[in-house]
Structure formats: structure tokens, C-alpha cells
């Protein structure tokens, strides 16, 4: 049995505690030989998945309390095991969601770090610099490479600090570990989305436990 | 006589208090019949400008006190008439510079609003939404379009508030007027860069005043 989180560019697999990723185009050549429970935010993969043997969409089995309209199922899954705290999925976008007493209070979306780096590069060749994750955030930059790194990272940290205050923070995604170092009450959990999927799966009655 | 600010995509002209813009490619078909004093951050235009009649580079005439390395001449010009305060040029990038007692203390660069909108669109078709400048920044978003607008605008406002505190703020550039509405001690000056160029020109001795 696989759990499978289908994104816009990559597909993440979870099996027996192990996580790995393949590209969406590789995924479309994949024929599972055992049950594959998935969530999917990628519209282009939907027709292909519809007729696929062994593939089961977990989305209908999530019972999630929110008034947010059109929340991606990956965000729902990341929040699904968190009763109180801030859930941050720092991937190609950085989604930030606030959970309180098992209720989802809303959230927002920032461009991810690599998307931000590409945004600078598209503005001018002079701004096509590699973002330095170790840039000092308490000193004014004195050259362009630092001015870009500071401008890319500091707004994210300021926003998250403002949202999180003293609440617990649950981070996942490619840049989650990096961002976790800025926050005391934070936990980085690579498998956060899969934990949510496991919870939905066990509530669904699709598999017998034990 | 023209003043001329050559950027990466557009060229802004100033003459007798009037400001207008043409594209860089249009500019390369332009033959000035009178003196044109320019600043230029666009490397691709340099060879073309070098042999051009009537065209005079003002960059060597700026005397600017900073330890910042490689500061774009447009940023220097924007800061050149400001003794104390924060100088923000909100164009394709948002440059933020701090002046104190005529000294430049450093600065940083954020992606501009339209670059940010394009960054979201490149991440996922679901994030390809028009940024709403009137988004409420004090309420958690409850749908994706709001989550993007909030995530695009609020970090900029938080960064600028943190930098500016109670200092005077001088804004210019395409989104300068929009950003000025968030700050009490702010002035939007469309001609800020040209004022700097005028100051450099009058210090240069290139033209006789009177």
C-alpha cells in the first residue's frame, strides 16, 4: 500500500515510513501493483487517474471544519492532525494555516523561496543571484546580492512571526526545515501531509486496521 | 533638453516638468535633436548609447556617500535629494534605501507587485489571480484569491513599516502611490529620480544655469 501526494510538479510517495518523490510525468508511466491512496491538486493528472487500477482518491474521506473556500486538499491534509497551532507547508508556495480547537481559522499563501529567486531573476539580470540562507536579518545590506537575500527571506520571517507569536508551529515541505530554525516552538515534520492522509484513511473504513 | 532614466524594460523622459515613457526597443530608434542627459542601468543599451550624438551619461557627476557596493544609478538618483528618510522606488523591483544626514546607510530589494503576481502564476494555475490592492490586511483570508493578495501585499507593508517607523518616506515608481496610502509620513513623488538627476546636472557644470 502506498500513500501518494500529487502536486503540480512532483508526486510524493509514502510507504512504511519511507518518503520519496518522482516527477508528474514519471508518475504517468507508473502502474501500481497494490492499493495507492492519493490526494491530488494537479488538474492535468485527473483524467489519467480516473480509470487507473488500484488508485483511490482519499479526498472525499476528509472531514475538515473550515469556511475557507477552495482549500487545496494538500493543505487540508497538512492541517488534519493539528488541533491547535500554525501549519506551514513551505514548498513551491508557502501555505500558512491557522488551527484552533480543531477548527481551521483561515490562512494565506506566500511565494516559495525558489519562486522568489526566479521572480528576482526575471526582473533584471543584476538581481539573478542565489539567495543566501545565512544572510544577517538584523543588519542593513551593503551590496545587491545581500539586498536580494534579505528582501527574499526577511518578509517571510516577519509574516510568520506575526502570525505565529507563541503558538506551536508545524512545518513541512522542502524549505520547512530551513524556516523552522527561526522559530522556537516549531516542529519540522516531513510526513505531516501523510499523517493527515493516514488519519483520513483510517476514518474511511477503506482498510481494516490491525 | 531631456532628462532620461533608462531601465530594463522602459525609458522614462523628463522635460519641462512633464514625464513620459517609451519601451527600450522604441528608444533605440530615437534620435535626439537636443541634449539628452541620461542615467542607465540597462547593459544591453550601453553600446548603442556610446556613440550617440547629444547623449550624455550623468552617472559620473553623482557624488554619493555610501559603502554599498554596486548600487544602481537609478537608486542613487532617487536618494540624491533626500537628506533624511526612507527612499522607496516601487517599480518592477521595490528598492528601499535609508538616508541619514545625507549618508546612505544601506538598503534592500523586494520583488515588485507585478513580479510577485507572476511568481504566483508560475507556481500553479490556481494561484494565477489578480492581486486585489484593497484586500483587508487585518482579517485572515478565507479563499485562495484573498490568500494570494494578502500574501503578496502584507509582507511588503510589514517590511516597510519595520524599516520606516516614524521616519519620512519618499516613494516613487509605478506602485509608489499605492504603497504611500499605508504610511502617514509619506510623500509620493513621480519625479524623484529626475530631481536627483537635476541636482547632479547642476553640480556638474555641464549646463549654465539662469
Notes on the structure:
The structure is a homodimer of 210-residue chains. The first copy, chain A, has 210 residues and is an alpha/beta fold. The first copy, chain A, folds into two domains: 2-57, Nucleotidyltransferase, domain 5 (2-Layer Sandwich); 73-189, ATPase, nucleotide binding domain (Nucleotidyltransferase, domain 5, 2-Layer Sandwich). The first copy, chain A, is 31% helix and 26% strand. Chain A has helices at 24-27, 46-50, 73-79, 113-123, 144-164, 176-180, 192-204, and strands at 2-6, 10-15, 18-23, 36-40, 55-57, 85-90, 93-100, 103-111, 169-172, 186-188. A five-stranded mixed β-sheet of chain A has the order 3-2-1-4-5. The first copy, chain A, has a five-stranded mixed β-sheet with strand order 8-7-6-9-10, with helices on both faces. In chain A, a hairpin with a 3-residue loop joins strand 1 (2-6) and strand 2 (10-15). In chain A, helix 3 (73-79) crosses helix 7 (192-204). The longest helix of chain A has 21 residues, at 144-164. Chains A and B meet through strand 7, strand 8, helix 4 and helix 5 of A and strand 7, strand 8, helix 4 and helix 5 of B.
Search tags:
210 residues; Nucleotidyltransferase, domain 5; 26% strand; 5-stranded mixed beta sheet; homodimer
Write down the CATH topology of the largest domain in chain A: Nucleotidyltransferase, domain 5
Number of strands of chain A: 10
Helical proportion of chain A? 25-40%
Shape, per Cα inertia axes of chain A: globular
Q: How are the strands ordered across the major sheet of chain A?
A: 3-2-1-4-5
Largest interface, C-beta closer than 8 angstroms, per-chain residues:
A-B, 50 and 49 residues
Our count of helices of chain A gives: 7
